[in-house]
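Help!! Second protein's tokens look totally different from the first
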Amino acid sequence: MAELDNSTAPSDRAMQRAAKRWRDWLKAQDIGAAVFQQQAWRAYADGHSGLISAPTGRGKTLAALGGPLMQAMAEAETPEGRASHGPRMLWVTPLRALASDTRERITGPVAAVLPHWQVAMRTGDATSRDKRLTDTGKAQLVVITPESLALLLSHERSREQFSQLRCIVVDEWHELLPSKRGVLLQLNLARIQALAPQAQVWGLSATIGNLQEASDVLLSAWQVQSPALIQDMRPKPFHLHSITPPLGTRMPWAGHLGLANLGEVAKLVFSAPSTIVFTNTRAQAELWHTALASIWPEDAETLAIHHGSLDQGVRQSVEQRLRAGTLRCVVATSSLDLGVDFPAVERVIQIGGARSVARMVQRAGRAKHRPGAAVHVEAVATQAMDLAEFAAVRELAEAQVYERREPLRLCFDVLSQHAMSAALAGGFRPPELLAEVRRTAAFRDLSDAQWQAVLAFLEHGSDSLVQYPQYERLHCADGLCQPANTGVVRMHRMSIGTITAHGAVNVQYLRGARLGSVEEAFIARLSPGDVFNFAGRSLVLVRLENQTAWVRRSAEVGLLTPAWAGSLMPMSSSLGERMQQLLSTAAASPAADDAPHARELQWLQPLLQLQSQRSLVPGADQLLIEQVGNTQASQGAKAAPLFVYPFAGRVAHEGLAVLIATRLAHLQANTFAWACNEIGLMIQPTLPIDANAVDWAEIFKLDGLDTDLRSAVNFSELARKRFKEIAQIAGLVQSKVPGKKSRASDRQLQVSASLLFDVLSKYDPEHLLLRQARQEALDQELHLPTMQRLLASIAMRQIALRFPARHTPFSFGLWAESFRGQLSNETWQDKVRRMATQQERQAAGEPGPRTGAPRTRPSRSGAPSRGAAPPRPRAKGTLPQGTRTAARRTPQLQDRS
């Protein structure tokens, strides 16, 4: 703190006294100020804005809180400083659970040094007292989410409400940065900058690869020339211990639930006072909670579940008990992995791969969440490839190599919503709002024509919708734009935010509390009397009415568990590349017992040896392509499948499978099915394809990528799917109607959006939202940017063709995935187990490699390959006129928590 005192002007007695009071409070709490915290306080005192980056548990909260509190203490010595109206500080958080936790953490220091301050929470979980404190301007510090901030800014009182604001802290900024919620927050910050230009902005982030860009985006509205970038450079030990079966024990090469490891997980749980078990999906969390409950020897109240679809009351009860240390175990998703402080938690268990270095480190930081404590996580392998991921994550985390978070640009649905909010807040003049919007990174490149298109959309929807008054929401006259009528005001405020409805149905006891929500499609498959698992309970469906599933407790364990639609967790390219390098190195020379990754790689040795015998473990500069079995299909048999291993993650492989199938169909008319996992993809043709006759450089070329992806699938339907969410955010369709308690059903929303999509496609094909829907379909459904980077990487690799007679360990996992969604009276697990046993028997008696005729071909980059045979002439098959690739996607469990 001496450094802080030295930076204060000697005549500024008030700041010196405030610094002493802050220092005394820290000393009373036995807290020693870290260097990065002192740097942050000094930078704030000097009037800077910036970004604070530090590992989990290092004290970022105090780093961001100290400067504003010292400033407020100094100002409170004057009558003007104590009599301010409205919040002096906003703390923006991405999660409701994190908001509640943050309020608990900051209330203590605030009450100690500023007893006249009121701390309120303004989220979907806020109490009526908190809302009253915020709305009346009696709360000096408000913990808030981006959606609630947008709602406050939609009121005319916001001009006065935020005029005295001094500081805005954005917690976990890296989570908001790559989403539309981050775009909405950028626009809100630009509006606050116009209302309170004296306010300083500080972001907090623990793990991000593009820290400078993140800072620039956050502070774009303030146009800060040299933002303060403060990092805690002290290394924090990261320990990842992988849980594997004994050597020689069979372990699946595919799968994701990992319930076979239930016994090991139970041992870990009961060896610690309090544990969080993290899963990647809500459905997986429900299944793991049910499995643990079936063998739980203690009071059932000591086991709980936490995810985003549970009711506020259920989640808050779990969080309170976790803080109090009365819970032995909580099974959770990402709803608890961001900055939530539970000192009682001593152990974190991750089920399966987290698919991201940053996510694994974040989750590991929930245990022993105290400054100076090492980060430790127990990682449970659910299938063999998880072991390679664990080894790669450990190495990258120790080197602090984290994933980039790419910000979104030009989201016109969010801009349309923001413009309507500005209209509600007393109206706006288009040139002034345009200048304000262009200060954000998201809309820095907004053209005049695009801005006029946004205004035209809000005024009448479209030229084809001008006859329908419900689409007239904005009225502009004499240079001022205001809501068209009072109905528009009510409707807009009910739909503010970018988290769109997915046909949720409330689940509620007949005579009791609400438990949460499940998807409408899941409930629609049930009949009264069916038993299902939800919220850690076995429930029997009594009836379904008014978008509410009325239930009661059941004594029997349900056989059905809901799954939620959402986005797959993409595996980062750096993680995939390191996995491939580790596997290649391990196959060439087994790891020594004292090597950093000996445990994982030694366990994988038998599988890697078999992979080498039958095919190849590809190096970092190789792309392995396998064609398993005979290339010519006999009568009634399937053609030999193709397996490609880019090690780029399931999301990237989905798009690559579409592209490969499309371009193979250009050679000959065919029908394809495919399956994907984290290391590769399988293409199953109906008619035989000779991999030797394919010009693979042509298949993986970057030219024509956009066109081929559009032609590969029913692109119009993908755009239609994106249009539904865009239309909700932009206010074109409504999920809530004033005066009605229930939301519109998912089917109603889909029908409304589809009708509008068809009308606009026919009469206004260049409509602003249609163009956005098409672009999002390319970027988010077909993953165009990811595909561009992947093809550029493949162009630098050598194509290695192998023709194993039987499945390899790599191909077996993809083969297993391909059976999902097929009709059979044999379970997927039994079918895979039977095939695995057969493979093991064959491997045990296999004298040597049977790889057919291995061929290595140069990549498009022209890099020579050792021993490469001269290429065979390319097949001159052409795609008949009108023939399309009939591609069938294998269903995958998807979830967004």
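Here's the second one for comparison:
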Amino acid sequence: MNRPQIHFLSIILLFLCELLFAQQQKLSDFYLIQRQYESLPENDAAALPLVGKLIRKAKLENNHTQLFLGYKDARYYSADPQVKLKYADSAIYVAKAIKNDSLLSSAYLSKGVVYYFYLKKYKLALNEYLKAFERNKSNKDPYYRNKLNYHIGVVKSYIGYYKEALNNFEEGRVFFEGEIKKYQHPNLMYGNQRGYLNTIHQMIVCYRKLDDNKMADSLIAVGLAGSSKNTDYKQEHSYFLKEEGIREFRSKHYGNAIKMLNNSLSELIQVNDFAWLTVSYSYLGRAKWEQGNTAEAIKDFEKIDSIFVKHNFVLPEVRHIYVDLINYYADNKDSAKSLYYTRQLLKVDKILEEDFVYLSSKIHHEYDADKLLQEKDKLQRISWIRGTVYVILLFIFSFGAFYLLLRLRSRKTVIGRNSILGINLAGGTLQMEGEGAFRMRTYRKTDIGNGIVEDVLQKLSEFEANHEYLNEHIKLKSLAKSFGVNHNYLSEIIQAHRGANFHLYLCELRISYITKKLDTDKEYHKYSSDTLAKMCGISSRTNFSKVFLQINGINFTQYLTKVKSEMGTTSISLNK
């Protein structure tokens, strides 16, 4: 290579290096700002001036990604929940503007966390979670998927669906446990460790509610061991102290229970986790009550009511303290306070009832149904791929076998020149016996809530008993609407408990009805297949004949001749 060429290449390389380092310098400006506050704890407003500087720079440079991250940081470090909501909305706005579903899903989840953790507004939180779930379909990040899964599980646990919630939490536990065993950046390790500990805590609550104390106690030990040695996890440690106090209370070690529960209070107050704070006060009061210190117990119970008055929120498991307060003041002839707590209990029950109905409906209709459909599509794709592979392998095997047979035929004479493996190559059709009479089948239960399944099955039984399936205009969606259930749920339940899709289910009912009439009523021997098709709700004679053959294993004319012969009917009217 001559000198001019070398000189020219040097100029090109210098130009490219300048562009590269200029870009790195531009990106590092944001990093240098973020590095100054990233070590500060959550809700530390001291970070906000620096976050504001990053946001202004991102706006000036029209850098939407950095602007989005800036708004998320502002939400994280703001102490006021209402300010957090403002920044969460700003992040949503930016994500929508750049049409990035992954960022938009993350922004919705971030807003939902504010509603859930800081405000305990489960309805509003779930709405944001469902938006995040809807936008998350293309997001392949397992950390984010498990984080979203965790928050959905929390809602299920709150409304009493403990087994379903455990499914969510168990998936997250396996993921986070695997991640914390890896060598990672400290920030990633911190996030995964917190995810792991919070998931363990929620699992303890579910097992406790299901009276599986053995599993709950083993996880308490895991949680205490994993959170006691690192001050970064003081909040999580307070949750396990709470659960250890409840375990001691259950074992009737009331002194130890009081000690553990008192130790859990300071951090719960510090982070303003008033929901779990009420649980600690509840068991603290009960332990004191068992020790005979009723007056102090009542003070703890009244603290729970103060939290309810301030936040208009209560966990179902502390409801009982209102009954204790009502009875205590009634026994002490304080009718005014007894009446007050009676009214408070009515408010609590109203809120719990409204939350349960709303959240249950949303979980089943907008989350579980959609998730089931996604899983169904995934399984169908896997099934299609497997089926294709099997067909290809079968073709290769068949071709090889056929080739070997031809080689053998060229070497020796076989009986039947025009047949191979007993199949007549000169013509003819393969005969198959039908399955016979109509049958209803029962299969496994679905993953849909038992209450919904039982209600739908009861309505299906009435639908069948009243012969409503004879209406030729009945459709899946119209039937689901009359049942008051999502049509996807109705389809899944029919498939699971009747062993057929909706169309086949109707066909079996209709053909069964006509078959029974032919077997028992000579009057029906006079009707043509066209008339019988209309009677049972099948749109055409062709469809009727086809379905009749599929279900009964014999065509309509043959079946009618057989029944007439057995019953002594002499004539058929083809036009009636």
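Reply: Different proteins will give different token patterns, so don't panic. The beta strands are 419-420, 423-424.
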